[in-house]
Design brief:
It is built from three helices and nine strands, in the order βαββαβββαβββ. The chain is mainly beta and 143 residues long. Strands 2-3-1-4-5 form a five-stranded antiparallel β-sheet, with helices on one face. The chain has a four-stranded antiparallel β-sheet with strand order 6-7-8-9, covered by helices on one side. One of its GO terms (biological process) is pyrimidine nucleotide biosynthetic process.
Length: 143
């Protein structure tokens, strides 16, 4: 059995869908961190069967909107003196900006670099977003 010690102060990103932990790890730039970081992949989970976990021995300023878009079932635990001080449950954000790029070649965002890619959540159950400018549909599962 694998044992990873608890952290004194920092963040634990838990309940990550198995296989998605590396996306979050890379998004947060943890490969170049100068503090302790643990990426645990395919850990046993009673709820999910298998899950990924990231333990960060540091407090980071994270964009929870992007993390919620990557995996809306994530739980963020803020650890202080080896105790969970705050628990944040994520969900799909209502609006995302410059996280994904519209794939419609006729969309104004494909032509004008200065225009932000903005998508609005239209169906939370199916994880569907619609481009603000051209109504192109984007599914989270396409990511």
């Amino acid at each position: 059995m694998l044992t990873v010690n608890s952290i004194k102060n920092g963040i634990v990103i838990d309940h990550i869908k198995a296989g998605c932990g590396i996306k979050i790890f890379n998004y947060l730039g943890l490969n170049s961190a100068d503090y302790s970081v643990a990426l645990i992949m395919n850990a046993e989970s009673k709820q999910l069967g298998k899950k990924d976990i990231i333990k960060i021995e540091n407090n980071l300023d994270m964009d929870l909107t992007v993390l919620g878009f990557i995996d809306p079932n994530i739980t963020i635990n803020i650890i202080d003196d080896e105790t969970i001080k705050r628990k944040i449950n994520l969900r799909l954000p209502d609006k995302i900006e410059n996280v994904i790029k519209c794939k419609n070649p006729r969309c104004i965002t494909s032509v004008e670099d200065s225009i932000s890619n903005v998508f609005y959540l239209i169906d939370e159950d199916r994880g569907e977003y619609k481009c603000k400018y051209c109504d192109e549909i984007y599914k989270v599962s396409d990511m």
